[in-house]
Design a protein that fits this description.
Blueprint: H1 5-17, H2 23-30, H3 34-41, H4 43-63, H5 65-85, H6 87-107, H7 111-129, H8 131-155, H9 161-170, E1 184-188, E2 203-207, H10 208-214, H11 219-222, H12 225-235
Antiparallel strand pairs: 1-2
Length: 237
Amino acid sequence: MKHTEEFKQQVRDYVKDNPTLLKKDITKKFKISHETLKRYTDPEFEKYFNERYSKYHKNRVLNDPEYKKSFNKHCQNSHKRKMANNPVYRDKFNKHVKDRYHLRMKNEKGYKEKISKRWLKNHNHKMETDPEYKANWKASLKIQTNARREKKADLNENYTPADLEYTMALFKHKCAYCDSQKDLCIDHWRPLSKGYALTRTNAVVLCNSCNASKGAKLPEDHFDKEFVGLIEAKLDK
């Protein structure tokens, strides 16, 4: 059984407050083994025990398929429980996934293409085999198109070809995020859906993949702070 830090501290405090008690009485009270008691009260032994267990665990994972399978299942179940019941763990994990995704998109060669192909393959498969998905997809596209037309009309959006050339030159005809020169498009830096018209100070160059990834999110909700600061400074010039 894995005990909490609170429980471990309780054992330490009890041992400290009762120095004359026999070890067997302490282990009996807390229902732990002599080895566990030693781990909780002796930092050097705790360090030695952890190193020994880590070596033993790695060896079994490498050489025992059944143990590896059981351990992976245990980790998955533990992760699911924490995601469902622990908001702090869930937020930390989601942030880790998001940061890792952006780091790989920016620095790992071929990762963006791999993600795009995977999404497209899954999308095409669903369009062919799932009538409900296909109907929902077409309906959502129609709704988005109509909503964008209405929004542009309300905001009197008038982004000219000259503005387009200015934006492309400003970003050197490359995706502002990943530096790709393929499948480029002009995107609202701050989304149209939140009331921001396409202007010279709100237009960036993104590749289709980065544009799809950003969607209708605000820049600070999708990109890291450093990148947002660089783009804001460039647009404000």
